[in-house]
Design a protein that fits this description.
By secondary structure, the protein is of the alpha/beta class. The protein has seven helices and nine strands, in the order H-E-H-H-E-H-H-E-H-E-E-E-H-E-E-E. The protein has one domain: Glutaredoxin (3-Layer(aba) Sandwich).
Length: 166
């Protein structure tokens, strides 16, 4: 029994470790985000998916990604916060949106446009294997965006967690 439990824990740890990857492994998002016209490019890409952009949240993900399924509880919690503050929530499958797939290296991810239609956040929900609220990157930022207290766009390209590549 002890040997079975040990082998099970080892197998689970091995699988979890192999699923943890960098959000932006080639640093393409990081490099692109340094361009002066980056916010405008993001707005242009997402304008093709949904109008208007003001007070809009885009979840980037798809059902066959196990990581997307692991973050479902976190996503529901975030959706409640956004809905309570009048935000429109949309889901985009990166496999069906070529320009988004080229822009965002991994998913699950989130893009938030503030009440003026400006980019507020682009990046992963959180870090770590389970993508949980405990390791959330987005919650403190989302709270400042919905309160209209943020100072501009936050783009997070650095993070290790459970992500599927675009």
């Amino acid at each position: 029994m002890v040997m079975w439990a040990g082998l099970s824990l080892f197998t689970l740890a091995y699988i979890a470790q192999n699923k943890v990857t960098n959000f932006d492994p080639q640093q393409l998002l990081l490099t692109a985000s340094m361009a002066q016209d980056f916010d405008g490019k993001v707005k242009s890409v997402f304008s093709e998916v949904g109008q208007p952009l003001h007070k809009t949240v885009f979840h980037i993900g798809e059902q066959s990604c196990d990581c997307n399924n692991l973050s479902s509880t976190h996503i529901r919690k975030l959706n409640r916060t956004f809905a309570e503050n009048g935000y429109i929530v949309k889901t985009v499958n990166p496999k069906e949106a070529t320009k988004i797939r080229k822009l965002i290296p991994s998913y699950p991810a989130m893009v938030i446009f503030d009440e003026s239609g400006n980019l507020g956040y682009l990046g992963p929900y959180s870090t770590g294997y389970f993508c949980s609220p405990k390791t959330s990157l987005i919650e403190p930022i989302a709270n400042t965006i919905v309160a209209n207290e943020h100072l501009g766009a936050t783009v997070i390209a650095d993070g290790e967690g459970c992500y599927c590549q675009s």
